[in-house]
Design brief:
Shape of chain A: globular
Number of domains of chain B: 2
Largest sheet of chain A: 7 strands, mixed
Distance between the termini of chain A: 27 Å
CATH class of the largest domain in chain B: Alpha Beta
CATH class of the largest domain in chain A: Alpha Beta
Strand order of the largest sheet of chain A: 3-2-4-5-7-6-12
Structural class of chain A: alpha/beta
Strand order of the largest sheet of chain B: 5-6-7-11-10
CATH superfamily of the largest domain in chain B: Thiamin diphosphate (ThDP)-binding fold, Pyr/PP domains
Number of domains of chain A: 2
CATH superfamily of the largest domain in chain A: Thiamin diphosphate (ThDP)-binding fold, Pyr/PP domains
Order of helices and strands of chain A: HEHEHHEHEHHEHEHEEEEHEEHEHEHH
Strand content of chain B: 5-15%
Number of strands of chain B: 11
Oligomer: heterodimer
Radius of gyration of chain B: 23 Å
Largest interface: A-B, 26 and 31 residues
CATH architecture of the largest domain in chain B: 3-Layer(aba) Sandwich
Structural class of chain B: alpha/beta
Helix content of chain B: 40-55%
Number of helices of chain B: 13
CATH topology of the largest domain in chain B: Rossmann fold
């Protein structure tokens, strides 16, 4: 299958545009919402909020550690801070997130944009394939990876209605539509497709690839289920164990390192509760690189639909 | 009996005369010396017989007293806002208003003989401090580990700020140099926020008193321990207070070694950018960091100029002299910019030897 063919059949929206609009909606609804930025307002689309609510927009310059600390001050003062920067640069302040925010369970929503390989052209310095692993290991943190534009909006709004620190990780602009009528709930994996033979457990942009792969697998006689695990922490362990019980085979898909992310989390749960064969699709233990287009980069790193189909077929044909 | 006696009427309004006993005069004088700071009193007395413009009068005072001109200008503005003095722009001669003249008269009712209330308070604090330093030594001894020197060096500032600010106003203190936790706990007990008996549980498994402060302890505003992070949070609280129209001052106590952390300077710039005049940093300048003297590990000087270059008003004090600490906190209250107190301190808890 060719990427261009896949693109033709899908409605493509933008994660960050959806985030920017959702912030505007939040700002209008709740006058305690304050947005903090580290000199990337145009890139993260928080500029839209800044334009409408300039008095509640705090720019700290290119200072990610200061960004996290300022957000903490607002949270301590009972405001509802949303702090946003590029995912990899938020990680620069990971220790601040751990020590200043998470230990005191401060009510801050971090929205990390340009996650995974979505900043394809800028190269490995701007790509982020480690954040899920780093953030989910921190006590008190919730980690959310929305699949598409609509769920970016709804999961962000739900996160603001849930107390405590959140790492919400979104890509840049390539967000194929997954949810039309349904709305996922934080903490509950969403079954997008029932299957008998194998379950594709995915998060983020990989959810749409999983749905695409399931169609191809169907033609090959493999009945694949698709589970959107948008909340990586707290993990919906019940849904994952149930998937392993139903299909007996799991493929995990994430735009993240194979080490420590969704694949790691799913394996941890299954090892102790319902051992089953698992194949993890994610970046190998390596950095990304520049590409002029997004989808060829994903394919180059083994995250293409063809990789998913091959992994699922291999699992399904095993005994 | 009222001190105001109605003695007549003019244009339908009563005219009062004020008759005061000596005790009442003294009471008034005390009240006024509490309300006005030394700089303001100095300006008032210099304006008794004004001869030139406000700018040149203040410049003369500054030269004589070594008080920065900017501080005097600010205080002159405050006096004008209080309608105690009047002056216009340019060369117009400033003068005391009628009320200003009255205030000055009351202040000078043998002002030298009336005890300065600040002295009484600082003596009380000094007395408690001796006791608390012994307590901190005992706590760390009991616990078997802990940072004694850095606790003793900042204890006097913590005590003064908690006793005269945090306890009586809506203010917040962040101990960014969290390794001074024993001093913070001792002060929290001293001002009655936690029980004195709890102090000896420091660092034990069933105690709230962690090796570095955590918010499970009442009176602790932020869990700290990792250096360099407190000022950003303090700025956040200060800016949030401004957005909420809440009068609230934030004190952030940092170590001089801690100034090696880049985040401090990120935050210093942010405070200046947002003109956070409700933020006060207290630098515990004890001259040592983990590996040795700050001069050898990573030089901080010229420290005053660094903070000034970042847009802060700076006052250097002896961090074990309670009169100086109290005055610095008063000056911080009136700053129109973020305010840094650089406190020369010693890890023994005293500069006097």
């Amino acid at each position: 299958m060719r990427w261009t063919e896949m693109e033709r059949g899908l409605k493509i929206e933008s994660y960050r545009e959806a985030f920017g609009r959702a912030l505007l909606e939040l700002g209008a609804k709740n006058d305690r919402v304050v947005v903090l930025d580290a000199d990337v307002a145009d890139s993260t689309r928080t500029a839209l909020f800044a334009k409408h609510f300039p008095e509640r927009f705090v720019s700290v310059g290119v200072s990610e550690q200061d960004l996290v600390g300022m957000a903490a001050g607002f949270a301590i003062s009972s405001w509802l801070p949303v702090a946003s920067t590029l995912s990899i640069f938020l990680l620069r302040a990971w220790e601040q997130v751990r020590n200043t925010v998470a230990r005191d369970r401060l009510n801050i929503k971090f929205v990390a944009t340009h996650a995974g390989l979505s900043d394809f052209a800028d190269g490995s310095s701007h790509q982020s394939v480690e954040d899920i692993a780093l953030m989910r290991t921190v006590p008190n943190m919730s980690v959310v990876v929305p699949a598409d534009a609509a769920s970016t909006r709804s999961l962000l709004i739900q996160a603001t209605e849930t107390s405590g620190p959140f790492h919400i990780r979104i890509g840049k602009d390539y967000a194929p539509t997954v949810y039309v009528d349904d709305e996922p709930s934080i903490g509950k994996a969403f079954c997008l497709r029932e299957g008998e033979d194998v379950t594709l457990v995915a998060c983020g942009v990989m959810v749409s690839f999983a749905l695409e792969a399931a169609k191809h697998l169907q033609k090959k006689g493999v009945d694949a289920g698709v589970l959107d695990v948008h909340t990586i922490k707290p993990l919906d362990t019940g849904a994952i164990i149930k998937a392993a019980q139903t299909t007996g085979r799991i493929v995990t898909l994430e735009e993240h390192s194979k080490i420590g992310g969704l694949g790691g989390a799913v394996s941890e749960i299954l090892c102790e509760n319902h051992p089953a064969p698992v194949k993890r699709i994610g970046t190998e233990d390596c950095f990304g690189r520049s590409s002029r287009r997004y989808l060829p980069l994903l394919e180059h790193l083994g995250l293409g639909v063809s990789n998913i189909v091959a992994a699922a077929e291999e699992l399904a044909s095993g005994t | 009996m009222s001190i105001f006696t109605e003695i007549g009427e003019a244009d339908g309004a009563p005219i009062f005369s004020i008759r005061l006993s000596q005790a009442e005069v003294e009471g008034f004088t005390r009240l006024l010396t509490r309300s006005l700071n030394r700089n303001q009193i100095l300006i008032l007395s210099e304006l008794r017989r004004p001869s030139s413009s406000i700018t040149s009068i203040l410049a003369q005072i500054s030269e004589k007293s070594t008080i920065p001109l900017s501080t005097l200008k600010l205080n002159a503005r405050i006096l004008r806002d209080l309608k105690l003095i009047t002056y216009g722009s340019g060369s117009k001669t400033p003068r005391l208003t009628e009320v200003g003249g009255l205030v000055l008269k009351m202040l000078e009712q043998d002002i030298k003989e009336i005890p300065n209330p600040v002295i009484g308070l600082s003596e009380q604090l000094a007395e408690r401090s001796v006791h608390l330093k012994k307590t901190v030594e005992r706590m760390i001894g009991e616990a078997g580990s802990g940072h004694l020197g850095p606790s003793l060096s900042c204890l006097d500032m913590l005590l003064t700020t908690y006793a005269t600010r945090i306890r009586v106003r809506d203010d917040v203190l962040i101990l960014s140099k969290g390794h001074a936790a024993p001093a913070l706990y001792a002060v929290l007990a001293e001002v009655g926020i936690i029980p004195m008996e709890e102090l000896d549980t420091l660092r034990s498994l069933d105690s709230r008193l962690q090796g570095h402060p955590e918010t499970i302890v009442p009176g602790v505003a932020l869990s700290t321990g990792s250096l360099g992070q407190g000022l950003s949070v303090g700025n956040g609280i200060a800016l949030a207070s401004k957005l909420s129209n809440r009068r609230r001052r934030v004190y952030v106590v940092v170590g001089d070694g801690e100034l090696d952390e880049g985040q401090i300077w990120e935050a210093a710039m942010t405070a200046a950018q947002y003109v956070l005049d409700n933020v006060t940093v207290i630098v515990d300048r004890n001259g040592f960091q983990h590996n040795g003297p700050t001069q050898e590990v990573k030089r901080k000087d010229p420290l005053k100029e660094k903070w000034e270059a970042f847009g802060w008003e700076v006052e250097e004090i002896d961090g074990h002299d309670f009169q100086q600490i109290l005055r610095a906190l008063d000056d911080a209250d009136q700053a129109d910019r973020p305010f840094a107190v650089i406190a020369r301190t010693s890890r023994t808890g005293s500069n006097s030897h």
